[in-house]
Amino acid sequence: MKSSSADQMDPQANNPLSRKLNKILETRLDNDKEMLEALKSLSVFFHENSLRSRRNLRGDIERRSLALNEQFAQAIHEVKEQLDFVCEDVTSMGTCCQEMTNRLKAARNQTSDLINKTTKLQAESQRLQMRAEVADAFLNKFQLKPEEVKVLRGTRDGRLHEDFFKAMERVKQIHNDCKILLRTNQQTAGLEVMESMALHQETAYERLYRWTQSECRMLSSDSVEVSPLLCQAMQALQDRPVLFKYSLDEFGTARRTAVVRGYIDALTRGGPGGTPRPIELHSHDPLRYVGDMLAWLHQAAASEKEHLQSLVKLATEQAGKVQIQDILGHITEGVCRPFKVRVEQVLVSEPGPVILYKLANLLKFYYNTIGQLLNSDAVLLSTLGEVYELCQRMFYNALNCHAQRLMEKVELPPADLGPTQSLNQTLSLLREVLASHDSSVVPLDARQEDFAKVLSCVLDPLLQMCAVSASKLNPADMGVYMVNSIYAMQSTLALYEFTDQRLEMLAGQIEAHLDTVVSEQASFVLSRSGLSHIYHIIQQHQPKEGPLSSIHGMDANTLKTSMSKFDTYLSSPDSLMMPQMNYVQSTSLRDRVYKQSTELISAAYELIYQNIMDPINAYKEPKSVVLRTPTQVKTLLA
Question: Which of 19, 43, 116, 281 is the 20 to 30 A CA-CA neighbour of 102?
């Protein structure tokens, strides 16, 4: 059975139609690109799917293939014709090139000598050209151009331009480069070029110096504007120190004239349009008058220094800036004489010690301030120092004259034992001087030195005057008068610096006179209370004289009477004040006198008490004589 069924299936499998059908069915059109391209081409001309169209499809495809082959053949034919034309042209060109090659070979054979000569001439030309370039380079490096020579020689108007300084720099550079030539075999050329450049340099420096002189002479107006060309000229002249110095001197002379004229105008005419007003209008006010002149001088010195610095700002430190102060001293020298004359006129008018002292401080301040701009040997600085010394001498002379007048006419102490009118006036003068001294801007060391001199000139005569004035007073009046006078001096000095030493000296003198007043007050109380006589007897008593009770006036009844008076005093200590105590002007000093006097009284009472209570002195019932102990007395007096 199995074999029969296999025999039935084999014919179907070997059938060609079946195989083709199976192959078609198994074909995957998506992966068969050739089939897709064929179908795509077929779709171009196969439009109708009919029986007739399918039968004629093979013929249509063959006809279409034939038409395409005919078109391809036609195109190939046209290409062949074009290539034939190209071949003919190439053949013609080859023929021409062969002819030209033949001609060139013939020409080369005929012109070989000429080519050799030409080659030699070209090599010679290159050598000559190189030599010409070297010569041009040498001339460019070591010779001036005609326009540069023309600039150095100058024009008829004599003006300078930027090109002049460039040409000068060029000459200087060439002159320095010649030193290199002198180290080579070209020494002769180097010497000749150096000599030529030296002549050009001298001519240029002479012209530059004359132009600089002319420019500096024109800088004599009040407002100065230094041009950049002039700064460059000074920079160039620094290589010639003599010409540089002469140019600065010319500038200084021109500016000196301008400064003197400006100073006189400031004194007499004032500023532009009358503002500020002329300084001479304030000649009635010495301080403002001298102060305005000094301020003008300081401003002028500072301005002239700025002008000099702008003039030599391009010069080196060593060449120009060192000479600024010397030239500045020369510029400001012209105003010294008119300034000194006017200050001396002010000082001769004797404005008074206070004004003189303020003027001295003002002169000292500007001496130090202007001294920062000028050399120490400048004439203006010397003039300021001279008028300062003169003002100082006149100030101390005025103080000495005032002191002499105090001693010539010594006032008697007033009734209230206070400071005299002359003392108050002198202290008022001293206060004004010290106040101006504190507000001055003079350096601290100088101020301290001046302070000591001023105090010596004023306080010593005052103390001497007070001593002479109080010489005829009783001790109590003299002590109170001296305490009040010295206290007034002390109160005046206490407000100012640098017075510690003098304050200590015055405090010591006050203490000495206070001791006198304290002693007088204690004596006054003991005398009024009846203890003075008893106290003196006890102080002078000697043991060999016997007991105190046996001495006349020291009996118990007499002592009881005195102790009764003293007890009355203890009940009202303020009742026994000597009249001079009311004249002590300082409350603190008055309290000190009262306190110290009560201490003396307590000490005297304690001595009396101890002697009465002593059994040696033979007092019966001593406690009935002295009712209070020293401690109780001290408490009551406190």
Answer: 116
Q: What is residue 622's DSSP assignment? A: H
> Crossing angle of helices 379-408/421-438, nearest 10°?
160
Alpha carbon distance 50, 203 (integer Å)? 120
- The pLDDT confidence band at residue 188, using thresholds 50, 70 and 90, is low
Encoded tokens for 153: 């020689």
Q: Determine contact, residues 498/452, Cβ cutoff 8 Å.
A: yes
**Which amino acid is present at 499?**
T
Cβ atoms within 10 A of the Cβ of 7, count?
Answer: 9
Length of the chain: 638
Question: How far is Cα 50 from Cα 53, in angstroms, rounded to an integer?
Answer: 5
Instruction: State the Cα–Cα distance between residues 150 and 501, nearest whole angstrom.
Output: 81
Report d(CA 327, CA 331) in Å as an integer. Answer: 6
pLDDT score of 301: 92
Interatomic CA distance for residues 25 and 142, integer angstroms:
104
Q: Which residues of 561-572 are buried (b: 16+ CB within 10 A; e: fewer)?
A: ebbeebeebbee
Count of other CB atoms within 10 angstroms of residue 524: 19
| AA letter at 612 | I
pLDDT in tens, 139-161: 666 677 777 777 777 665 567 77
Residue 478 is classified by DSSP as H
Query: Quick check: 441 pLDDT over 80?
Result: no
b/e string for 401-426 if b means 16 or more Cβ within 10 A?
A: ebbeebeeebeebeeebbbbebbeeb
